[in-house]
Design a protein that fits this description.
The chain is built from 8 helices and 6 strands, in the order βαβαβαβαβαβααα. A 6-stranded parallel beta sheet has the order 3-2-1-4-5-6, sandwiched between helices. By secondary structure, it is an alpha/beta fold.
Length: 183
């Protein structure tokens, strides 16, 4: 069966989907498919994406789906994915990255997101946004074996659990307020 790369975010130019399609067409990864899910913010941009898929004859490896909001369906999509791709040109947090990490899915994203730590702990690939960097980062990600992808995803999940565990968050707030009050 084919491995699945997942883009699960809003369909908008700042998300780098056209560049992702360009990289996908250059690499033409055998044994992989790319699934794109998300609400459409800009129908003209969506039409460009569809035309690019046709132009590069990627209809057998790149698929566009309607957005999914139901928890069970979303969970199934993430759990069946081998990597998560968000080549964003600008991102304030990247909730979809958090979702991918929570399911142990390794992430390829850009320095334009606040997730540089993923590179430091080998829980994902963080690239400076450019077409060439995206192509080489994608090539590296899809050439990884299953064990490496799973290990990378597990490290991301552990980071998320450690960083966003409610007890740790509460402890950090208490510590912060104690420091502020003691000044």
């Amino acid at each position: 069966s084919k491995k699945e790369a997942l883009f699960f975010s809003r369909i908008h130019e700042k998300k780098g989907i056209l560049e992702l399609i360009n990289s996908w067409s250059e690499i033409k990864p055998a044994n992989w498919i790319l699934k794109i899910y998300g609400p459409v913010s800009d129908m003209n941009y969506m039409n460009k994406i569809k035309m690019r898929i046709l132009k590069f004859s990627l209809e057998d490896s790149v698929f566009i789906y309607d957005p999914v909001f139901e928890y069970d369906k979303k969970e199934n999509i993430f759990l069946n994915s081998d990597c998560f791709l968000l080549p964003s040109k600008s991102e304030n947090f990247g909730m979809s990255i958090v979702e991918a990490l929570s399911y142990g899915v390794p992430v390829l994203t850009t320095e334009e997101t606040p997730w540089k730590i993923l590179n430091e702990i080998n829980a994902g690939k963080i690239i400076k946004f450019s077409q060439d960097n995206l192509t080489s980062g994608l090539k590296e990600m899809i050439s990884m074996n299953n064990d490496d992808l799973i290990s990378m995803g597990n490290r991301g999940r552990e980071l998320l659990k450690k960083k966003f565990d409610i007890n740790n968050v509460i402890f950090d707030y208490i510590k912060f307020y104690k420091e502020v009050l003691s000044q």
